């Protein structure tokens, strides 16, 4: 069974940083693109970043570009999302999703899914 588990969420102050992790179990991430999504209260889930299976191609939604960095460590079967310069608007539940090989911009291919696996989410709250 393909499983993803997010971790690293929590409370951060505006301007602070967090690093989220998306760990896979039951399969190897070597052949999968991973996308990060978030869902703020009262809003639809939105894609914010994607890294392809090779790790050579990364993309970001405009609101996080320059502040967030996606990376992968296939030896640890984990993808990371480093979030710097956090803002209150970044408050959301963050999810990762896996699909074979490729991204379509800043979401996994195909846009809108379906994807091979989703995590359960991790809460990020940015507040002073």
Layout: helices, strands, pairs:
Blueprint: E1 3-7, E2 10-12, E3 18-25, E4 32-39, E5 46-51, E6 58-60, E7 68-73, E8 78-83, E9 92-100, E10 103-104, E11 107-108, E12 117-118, E13 122-126
Parallel strand pairs: 2-13
Antiparallel strand pairs: 1-3, 3-8, 4-5, 4-9, 5-6, 7-8, 9-12, 9-13, 10-11
Describe the structure.
This protein is mainly beta. The chain contains no helices and 13 strands. The strands form three sheets. Strands 2, 4, 5, 6, 9, 12 and 13 form a seven-stranded mixed β-sheet that branches. The protein has a four-stranded antiparallel β-sheet with strand order 1-3-8-7, with no helix packed on it. Strand 4 (32-39) and strand 5 form a beta hairpin. 36% of the residues are buried.
């Amino acid at each position: 069974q393909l499983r993803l588990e997010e971790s690293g969420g929590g409370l951060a102050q505006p301007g602070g940083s967090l690093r989220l992790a998306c760990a896979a179990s039951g399969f190897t991430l070597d052949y999968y693109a991973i996308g990060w999504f978030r869902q703020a209260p009262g809003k639809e889930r939105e894609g914010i970043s994607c890294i392809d299976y090779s790790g050579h191609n990364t993309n970001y939604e405009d609101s996080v570009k320059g502040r967030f960095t996606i990376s992968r460590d296939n030896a640890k079967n984990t993808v990371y999302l480093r979030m710097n310069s956090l803002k209150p608007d970044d408050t959301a539940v963050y999810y990762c999703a896996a699909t074979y090989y490729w991204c379509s911009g800043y979401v996994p291919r195909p846009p809108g899914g379906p994807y091979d696996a989703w995590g359960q989410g991790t809460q990020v709250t940015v507040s002073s």
